[in-house]
Amino acid sequence: MSRSSTAIDPRVGEASDESPLAAVPPGEILLEEFMKPLGVSQNRLARDIDAPVSRIAGIVKGGRAITADTALRLAQFFGTSPEMWLTLQSDYDLRLARQAAGREIEKRVRPLAA
Fold it and tell me: Could you name the domain of life of the organism this protein comes from (predicted)?
């Protein structure tokens, strides 16, 4: 089971980095929630979605992002939507950015006055 959990910040209606859980790479979700339960190896997934094994390995290891092209392929293979895969990736990217620079950005960037 993955560590994924999303807290909703009612102030903005978006995922909040206030959750005590670390950002979960979409590759971990791919591996733990899809590949392992279905008995799909990296080699088989790569072959069946017509993608290089290195792409799948990079995603699973967390060093490579899921692109729109890969999202289309994963969605077709697993019977999901490409938006699901891209949302996992963008949520992960935003959480990392918030953890790395969110507080500094809040200090330095002044909101547009209404």
Answer: Bacteria
